[in-house]
Amino acid sequence: MSDGRSSVQLLAQCKICVVCSKNIQEDAAMQLDIQIKDHGGDVVIYEDPAPFPPIEQFTHIISSTADFPAYQSACDTLIPVVKPQWLQVSIAKMKLANPRQFSPDPKMFFSDVVVTCGDIPEGDKDAIVGGVMAMGGLYSSRVTSQVTHLVDLSMDSDKAKVVTSKGLGVKIVLPHWFDDCLKLGRRIDERPYTLPNPEILLAGPDVPIRTFGNVDIVGASTPEPTALPTPSRSPAHKRNLSVFEGKHIMLSSDLGIGNHLLASIEDLIRQGNGIVTKDLRKADMFICKHRDGFEYRTASRWNKEVGNLSWLFHLVTHNTWTSPLRRLLHYPTHREGIPGFKGLRISLSNYAGEARAYLENLIQATGAECTKTLKNDNTHLITAHGNSEKCTAAKEWGLYVINHLWLEESYAQWKMLPVSEPRYTHFPKRTNLGEVVGQTKLDKTVLEQNFFPADTGVEETRVMQQKDQNVAANAENNKTDPSLERAKSVSKSSPVPAKTAATMTPHTGKSSRKASLFGDTKTPMVSRFLADGEENVTPSTTSSRKSKETAAARIHDAAPDIALYEKEMKRVGGVIYGGRRKTDPDLVPPANNKKRRSAEPEEKDEAEDEKTDAKRQKKLRAPVTMHMIITGYQRWVGNVKKEDADKRQLRNLGIAITQDAKKCTHLAAPSILRTPKFVNALAYAPVIVNVDYITQCLAKDELLDPADFALVDKITEKKNGFTLTAARERAHRNKNKLLKGYRICCVETIRGGFEAFKSIVEANGGECTLFRGRVSMNDHRHRESSSDTNDSETDHSMKDDVFLISGDEPDHVKLWPRFRQMVFEYDRTPHIVSVNWLLDIAMSQEIRWKDEYEFQTREDA
Q1: Residue 334, H or E segment
Q2: CA–CA distance, 378 with 727 (Å, rounded to integer)
Q3: Burial of residue 220, with CB atoms counted within 10 A of its CB: 0-12 exposed, 13-18 middle, 19 or more buried
Q4: Is residue 232 part of a domain?
Q5: How many domains in the chain?
Q6: Which of 270, 733, 814, 854 has its CA at 20 to 30 Å from residue 18's CA atom?
Q7: Residue 268, CB half-sphere, CA atoms under 13 Å: how many?
Q8: Using one digit for the tens of pLDDT, what is the confidence trace for 496-520?
């Protein structure tokens, strides 16, 4: 009896809401219902799209995800949201467990990790346990059925042997995994850190880093979708479209879509049992494009769900509610971007597919420029890992090399975060950070502070409650400019008062707005908006008079800042970094900019700039006469300082060292080499010189004639059956189309690295893809490519065949039957060839074939 009474008492004071989701289906929810009632608790099961019950009545909410309508309200009212495991642990211990360890908040990225430690140093153990528990995980002193990860250095420890002998589903990982996760603030894949064969200790530097799909950005890679969504018909969504059940949706006029598309979107909403409305007071969801305008601010202050078309289409596609704050590009963008980002030129490296598209669109949303190629006038390189030619070049040019977390978190915090933060410059050794793209959420507090401050909501509420004709009249009479909001980045005083913001509309001409708003920056401006009290008629009460007096005082205080903003707008080049001066301590300077040596007034700064420019003209380097790739130069091996000094000296002579074969006009090497640099550059027919040319130019500190240092290597030419002179002539004629139309695949673990062979194929106009058991063919593109090249010297007899570059290692051989099968299905001829086939073609610049290139058929493989 005592056990029964204690079990009843466990949840006697609890009323729990169970939120159904993809991971908590109806059956699982019913099991939780029975367990809660058996232990004396009350329970309510919520299933979307029904209205969420009043949240104040609950003591706990059980959900496997933070992505449900009332999550933010639960956080605001301090009602704990926990995963189902919280209930199981509480029942097992007969004591309510700490809800923090079971939070579904994505920030607690170790929330489903239960870790135990093997034979590792005590200091490392304490650090790992502390980090895991801080990020929502749990620690167990021994191996139990609940443990998910064992931290160890080898498979020889006692705990590792227990895990192996009992066949427990525990991942045995190196401590490095926790270290990298905590440095990034994200949970990355354990695969490269998993014993007994951890990739981070075994893989060579040239082995390509594998990438995996990313579900966080599916349907969220652009804020402006171009096609209507198709509702999901998967078994998980057997019901008809019901995501808008009983909800009123308002579409903003700033979406800028045509009548036909607008009608189609409204039909989709009605198919989801939603109601299209033009009355913001009735709307549950407000769909707009930009974070400005009267309707946006009012809907946000009234806690409507505010999102963009991309978010709306995501709801239709998945028929499941998700917060518009969950993904950065599901929320309306700002017209001008983040202060300080305008003028930045950002390039991407090592991101692919939808992750790359997402980051390109996010860069544009910040106000910066996304460049397809990396040049020395770029300011930042965002890369998923540190192994690429772009990364090498960016470091040589002194650019900021960072991961995408800097971009995402700057956007979420709406300010330029410092690139020196260690999390933004950390690249785990064998991880492609494209796997964790899209996990950053928007912060509602930041949005409120920057775009709809709460203290201005009272006046807009009054206006909304007036008749429609009065609202329209006021909107027409009170034309103001969103640039007032931009002035906040300059102003350090109080924000623009409520009534000023309330009369702003996004559909007003700039000239008239500017004349009315900034025509006078002192007392007349106060009376224009507030003193007369004739623009917006409100009941004449003591509180309203007091509000006007307070607002008048605020606008008077803001007048000097507005005048300063006007002055900045007249400067040549406009407002720098949102109106901040270059001496602003919060300003993050672009790459290679020297710090000011003084903080003089602006007139003196401009005078100093002119003097500095004059000095630079005197020290101007010689114009670039050649772009050179250097390979095999032993003088620089292991001496980075010497290399940097020599490259600066060469640049002063007019020789720019480049890594980009497309820009290459000259190639320097000690002999004919099979390095990627040499082979790629050869496709562009550069002048080829001996590296002695570099040595002599540096020694004499003058630009010598490269014709006197032509590369001669008769032995290698005879061995490979071609001459450099003939190869260069053919490269001129081929114009990088030698392999155009050729379909070439490559195994993932090829010696030398897939990226190296891909770059060689692409430099010669071909297409190279990674073979992982699947061949993707595009006949239309292939045949067009085949018909484009009319080179009489090129043999196209094998152009319709498909080639696989492979080695003869067992791991490669087992892929051959699958490759042949798939190519035969496309009615093509497969060839499995060694790397010599590609290298001989690229170096001789002509199509060659020898039977020795192709591996013999192994039916028993």
Answers
A1: none
A2: 35
A3: buried
A4: yes
A5: 7
A6: 270
A7: 23
A8: 333 333 334 344 333 333 333 333 3
